[in-house]
Design goal:
mainly alpha; 14 helices
């Protein structure tokens, strides 16, 4: 477990995030240009969709149907449960609760990779189509949460006598937004072009992925570091939430994966995905749809609390749960 922690925390992506925090804490003027941040967001979202689509083209329908169905169910449950806890127990605003739901409803790709490596290390490798499940879990978790936040905000504005968009207009905005088009569209494009097409574009979408992700996390670190002062108001609640909520979601994911017929390692990886919180797809989506949501809450809880907890103790716990469920 210590080796897993060391291998992941000392990998380039978390280190880039830490550099961003340090840059902000020492009051450096470092920041990424807005256009570059937008371009990186588009690249990362589309690359995730493409990879999931290509992996989907390798799998048979019978092998992936049940796990895909359980993954989509998870993608509905995790944002709804997160929103309910944040809104009614934590007393967070509608936008902040929806922003948290978008992050905890979607997936951390780095945690997903760490879980796969752990399963291989303990001799329980997961199924090859797990990247497809990652893409399937990513999209509904984000968009259900954003739809909840956008609709609730529209109702509040309407109750105060203000003019706001109708529910139909809000849903149209969410479902046709950049995140949905890039993730779901990328999945379809990747599935249709399959392996022959992927070989042509993989140097760009695969070879440069981690480098672009480092730059993105650098900006996320700068953004989180600039909001650390806000944690004084909600620190204890977010600390408990960032540890307990992943345990609930992780156990649920391992159980649904087991019932869907996944192996011990596959169910544990699905549990890990459900327990993780996104910091790739969700931040740009939340910033576009819910600009008033405070980034400190969802960035700090997902990156500073849930991410290290999953790396240090969460993944082995979800593996143990999966083992117990498989008998």
């Amino acid at each position: 477990m210590f080796e897993t922690l060391k291998a992941n925390l000392l990998s380039p992506i978390p280190l880039a995030f830490a550099l961003g925090i340090i840059a902000r804490l020492v009051r450096s003027e470092l920041s990424l240009p807005k256009d570059l941040y937008t371009s990186l967001s588009i690249y990362l979202l589309f690359a995730l969709g493409l990879k999931g689509g290509v992996e989907l083209s390798h799998s048979t329908f019978n092998a992936i149907a049940a796990p895909a169905g359980m993954t989509l169910l998870l993608g509905c449950i995790t944002p709804l449960s997160t929103y309910a806890v944040m809104r009614y127990l934590g007393r967070f605003s509608t936008s902040d609760a929806a922003g948290m739901a978008a992050h905890y409803g979607s997936v951390s790709a780095v945690t997903f990779i760490a879980a796969q490596q752990y399963m291989e290390r303990v001799g329980a490798p997961a199924e090859g189509f797990m990247p497809t499940l990652l893409t399937l879990l990513e999209s509904p978790g984000i968009h259900i949460a954003l739809a909840i936040g956008a609709i609730a905000r529209a109702k509040q504005v309407g109750a105060q006598g203000g003019q706001t968009a109708s529910t139909k207009e809000v849903l149209h905005e969410v479902l046709t937004g950049r995140t949905m088009i890039l993730l779901v569209g990328g999945l379809l494009v990747g599935f249709l072009m399959a392996e022959p097409g992927w070989k042509v574009v993989s140097p760009f979408y695969d070879g440069m992925f981690r480098g672009a992700l480092m730059l993105f996390l650098l900006e996320m670190g700068i953004l989180a570091g600039s909001r650390f002062g806000d944690l004084k108001k909600v620190g204890p609640f977010l600390l408990a939430f960032g540890v307990l909520m992943p345990l609930v979601h992780g156990a649920l994911g391992a159980a649904l994966g087991t019932w869907a017929g996944l192996s011990v390692g596959g169910a544990a990886v699905l549990g890990t995905m459900a327990a993780s919180a996104s910091y790739i797809a969700a931040p740009p989506a939340v910033r576009v749809t819910l600009p008033e949501a405070n980034p400190t809450y969802f960035l700090t809880s997902s990156l500073a609390i849930t991410f290290p907890f999953n790396i240090l103790a969460g993944i082995p716990i979800y593996f143990r749960i999966s083992q117990a469920l498989h008998g």
